[in-house]
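Hey,
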Amino acid sequence: MSIDVNNESGTEVDEQAILDIARYALARMRIHPLSELSVIVVDSEAMEQLHIQWMDLPGPTDVMSFPMDELRPPSKDGGEPPQGLLGDIVLCPEVAARQGTEAPTRHTMDEELQLLTVHGVLHLLGYDHEEPDEKAEMFGLQAAIVDGWREEKGMTGPSPAPTVS
């Protein structure tokens, strides 16, 4: 799996954890091991520009996903997953820090960025949360991936509750 993490935000973030959880999420979703992903960490001004340009919404947001080859997890009956370019995930640590402190289960900016990375991966794989059933499926899968990764890393305590809308 080729995953690039590029921090352009000026904020110190745990890039290794972002890389690790992205790799874990893609493996868990059975994405071809030669697929490629880019994660870019930007400041709130850059995120706001992207949010306006692509979503026509004001203000910075926490995470945005830009799919490329529209890869999907392979079906349950097996089959070889296709390889390709997953796309880009853009994260904003300033928004993540605020969301972490406002969440019911307060957590750090890095924990929120880990959650948002998984959220972005799922969006790249075609998951959405517009409808209640879609939201339940996506957030359930997101929690399972974050919990599995945290358990594998020997982390204790409750996982961050989803704060993405």
